[in-house]
Structures are given as structure tokens and as C-alpha cells.
Amino acid sequence: MNDQINTILNQMAALEAELRTAVQAQESRMFFQIKGKRVEFEQSVGEAHRKLKTNFFRWLVTNRPQNLITGPLIYGMVIPLLLIDACVSFYQWACFPIYGITKVRRSDYLVFDRHHLGYLNFIEKFHCTYCEYGNGLMGYMAEILARTEQYFCPIKHAHKILGTHSRYNRFLDYGEAEAYEAKLEAYRVALGKVK
Question: Under a CB-based contact definition with an 8 Å cutoff, are residues 14 and 174 in contact?
């Protein structure tokens, strides 16, 4: 990887860290505190949220009919999601120690906190929990697969692809054969140092 690309990647990482800090600063102005796994709003904000909540019957009448019709199809996907979760978690549990790869922490990806929002009724909270699980699981799985790819084949594709994982831009360029084995070993060693 040439120096210009490496410099740009380092700048991107610095900007991402700056963005995280700015988002956290904005969140601190939203009048809530995180206490362990619990999110607590100031009393006045909590009361305002409860006043904004749509009761179940009003929500049911005003909801889009296509949402109700497709509900069983959407929530039926929980079965394959649970199966994927079990398989990927088992794979990581069994193989990562053998390869010397630091395990991916589930809690960094599967975060369930929207049920603390007082302006959501129980159906909306259920929807949020399902989406938190599905999207969190995909992020968790993507990181496990990204670490696996870094271990076995940290090479970019010849064709441009969309939606690459966070490790992809630092992979070897397609066709970069010089000292491939040594570079591959360096990528593998780095996986044992991931925090």
C-alpha cells in the first residue's frame, strides 16, 4: 500500500474518531445518562416522552396496512437470524483461539437500548428490538468474517465492490505478489492484537 493511501486511511480513522466524539457530545446534551446497561433521561424529558407516546389502539388504526400484512414474513426471519447467530458464534468460539485471532465482542454490536424510550409503545419497542438484533447481528457477523478474511486472504478484489468492511481498505492490492507470505503473516499477527 503506498504512503498516500496509508495517509488518507489514517486521516479517515482520525475523522471517524472525531465524529464519534462529536456524536457523544451531542448525546450528552440530550439529557440522558447511561448507567451500566440502563439509559436514564432527566425527569422532564421522560415525562415529555410519555406524553408523546401513541397508544396501541390509535397506533393500530393509523398504521400502514402493508406493515401489518408483511409482519409475519418480517418476523419469520428471526429463525434464520438465530441460526446464523448460533453458527457464527460457535465458529468464532471454536476457531479464533486456534488461529490466534482476538474474538469479536457481541456486546459491541448487539445493543438493546431503544426500549428505554418512553415515547414508543410496546409494539414499536418490539419492532426496535427486532431491528437492533438483526442489524447488530449483521455487524457482529461482518466483523467475524472480516477478521477471517484478514487471516486467510487479505487481498482486495480487482473489481470495485460496494459495502466493504472496515478492514478491507488496508488489505493488499489485487496482484500485489511481492513478499505476499511475509505480509500475510503480519496481517495474521495483527489479529491477535485487536482490542
Answer: no
